[in-house]
Amino acid sequence: MSDKLGDTPAAEFRKHLHEIADWVADYREQISTLPISPNQKPGSIRAKLPGSAPEQTESFDDILRDFQQIIFPGITHWAHPDFMGYFGATTTNSGILAEILTGALNVNAMTWRTSPAATELETVVLDWLRQWLRLPETFGGVVYDTASIGSMHALAVAREKAASEVRERGLSGREDVPMFRVYASDQAHSSIDKAVIALGLGEQNVVRIASDAEFRMDVAALREAVIADARIGFKPLAVVATVGTTSTASVDPVREIASVCREHEMWLHIDAAYGGGLCVVPEMQWVIDRFELADSVVVNPHKMLFVPFDFSALYVRDIARLRRVFTLVPEYLRGDAAGAEINYMDYGVQLGRRFRALKAWMVWRTFGREGLAARIRDHLRLAQLFTDWVRSDARFELSAPTVMGVVCFRYIGHNDADSDRLNAEIVRTINASGKSYLMQTKLRDRTVIRLGLGNILTTEENVRRAWEIIRATADTV
Ligand SMILES: Cc1ncc(COP(=O)(O)O)c(C=O)c1O
Description:
Layout: H1 10-30, H2 60-71, H3 93-105, H4 116-132, E1 140-144, H5 147-162, H6 166-169, E2 180-185, H7 190-198, E3 206-209, H8 219-231, E4 235-242, H9 254-263, E5 267-272, E6 296-299, H10 301-304, E7 312-316, H11 319-326, H12 331-337, H13 357-391, E8 396-398, E9 406-411, H14 416-433, E10 439-443, E11 446-452, H15 460-476
Parallel strand pairs: 2-3, 2-4, 4-5, 5-6
Antiparallel strand pairs: 1-7, 6-7, 8-9, 9-11, 10-11
Helix pairs in contact: 3-13, 4-13, 5-7, 13-15, 14-15
The chain binds pyridoxal-5'-phosphate.
Pyridoxal-5'-phosphate binds at residues 146-148, 189, 191, 242, 244-246, 271, 273-274, 300, 312.
């Protein structure tokens, strides 16, 4: 009996590890031959799986077979070079290798003592990225899973700064706390609304500021909204400037927004989840201009810097304040927390933390800044090339300037309603075909097609094929 306890036998593990290593290498090599999306009906995968957990042991060969036969056919291949949804996909060979090591180590980076190297490497890669972003040394960072969580923590610090003792006393039932308002452009990501919801500030207190013709926040409209709110008793709390908006990758005017924040003593949070990645490209430095004026900045290396999902970095000018808001050391952690310079559990609501720094460290060393920049530069070139193709076909029009690796355009129908339907139909037909993968979004109430580049495997040939498929599909819908 006793020899049946413990983990699976070492020899068996080694054999499967080799098999999976080969499987992963084959997958990476052959990925472009696969259909991108499975086109299955909702529930069809679950219907093939037992509804209750196994009572008895199952062999890994059987499990792997079911992976191949049931799970794999239900995968949407984000890593496929023809996948051009969202911001492309950012997995890389060295990132995959790092994830294998991370899984084997399975350390918890909550305190320094629970794994000193995990904490110290996190500090190192955060500092590398801080330097690329040209943020002063006064900014401290922390790694979270996503930008949504980073923005929530940033706004929690803003809230604590504006209303004392929120940590201890909360907000409800307090007459000394005014109604806060948070400002973001009409292009800002929904994570800002979610952060406000989670912080108990009230969704209706997110004020959406109109954007200009190029989808950048209209600063005059921001200033007016802030003044009008202050006049009727609201407390303008924070402005979120987006650098690389989700739909068009537009860049809000950070310098001007920072002036409004200074005038009205508001927190400036920069959501550079996507656009911040351009910090490694010398000729694109204008994108990160004046980041040093912010109180907090969030960047997702899993969006542009080739680190596999998930890895998001939050920088706060006064990181000690973030720590004060969230540090809480229960007795059972006191021993492990003692004597350390940094225990990252102090910098957020999460206690247990994955060792995410390892993959960033391995990926960034694999390419170096120059290698990262060269690859991103090529995506920018391909986005411009695609933009030229759209311009040269009279049946299509550009819907927004192409600033980064994102192109928004639309098929021109007979009238607006007809065109909205056709553009949605083009995206749906293409995605169902498995040959390419795009997104639709709404700009100024019109449905448009959105192409996002970022996959390290995507070449000019892939982008050219996408354009051919789009044109051929437009002929048929
Ligand atoms: C501008 C922007 N901010 C925030 C987010 C949210 O990112 P995450 O999925 O890391 O929470 C996105 C996601 O696409 C985004 O485009």
